Amino acid sequence: DIVKGKEENRVAELYNLCKSLERLADSQSFKWLFITLTAPPKYHPNPTVGKKPLNRKIKIKDSHEYINNNWRKIRATLNSRGIPASPKTYFGFRVVEPHQDGCIHWHLIIFSSPEKINEIKKAIREKFPTEASADIMLGKTGPGMAKAASYISNTSQRDFRKKMK
């Protein structure tokens, strides 16, 4: 019950954070991206070697460090192109989760001015060139379309329900 309560609180906090950022984004007519970043295969455990990475020096936290280092490079690239993270250009949050094999991946919601979306996607693709390494989804906007907070809430609740089974 305690674990279930903590997970429910986590989902509620995530929803409230996203809802607050969504309001700021809406006030500026920003669009949103839902991004999943994943480390390359060498960071994932391999069943042919007893579910250990092919390189035994690689630890689970190394996948997180790989993504984090590349995210720093993406932000530096955007800064060098005149697009620093700010309430006027882009902002958002991330959630760090393990894959079923234990390798870390990130989910990000990024809100951005429409004219910066393609530059952000381009910078991400420079460090995560494939769909397998970076799944980038442009959120739909308009009447009847799910907002970012609803999307992340539904995703988090679905993951939460899986964990509780």
Shape: globular
Provide the helix percentage.
Answer: 40-55%
Summed up, the helix count is 4
Class by helix and strand content? alpha+beta
Oligomer: single chain
Q: SSE order, as H and E?
A: HEHEEHEH
- N-to-C terminal Cα separation, in Å? 13 Å
Strand order of the largest sheet: 2-3-1-4
Mean pLDDT figure: 81
Beta percentage is: 15-25%
Low-confidence segments: 160-165
Q: Got a strand count?
A: 4
Main pleated-sheet profile: 4 strands, antiparallel
Radius of gyration: 17 Å
Please give a structural write-up.
By secondary structure, this protein is α+β, with helices and mostly antiparallel strands. Helices cover 45% and strands 19% of the residues. The chain has four helices and four strands, in the order H-E-H-E-E-H-E-H. It has helices spanning 2-27, 60-80, 117-127, 148-164, and strands at residues 31-38, 90-98, 104-112, 134-138. A four-stranded antiparallel β-sheet has the order 2-3-1-4, with helices on both faces. It is globular and about 50 Å long. The model is unreliable at 160-165 (pLDDT under 50).
Write a short abstract of this structure.
The chain is of the alpha+beta class.
Task: Write out key terms for the chains shown.
165 residues; alpha+beta; globular; disordered C terminus
List the SSEs and their pairings.
Layout: H1 2-27, E1 31-38, H2 60-80, E2 90-98, E3 104-112, H3 117-127, E4 134-138, H4 148-164
Antiparallel strand pairs: 1-3, 1-4, 2-3
Helix pairs in contact: 1-4, 2-3
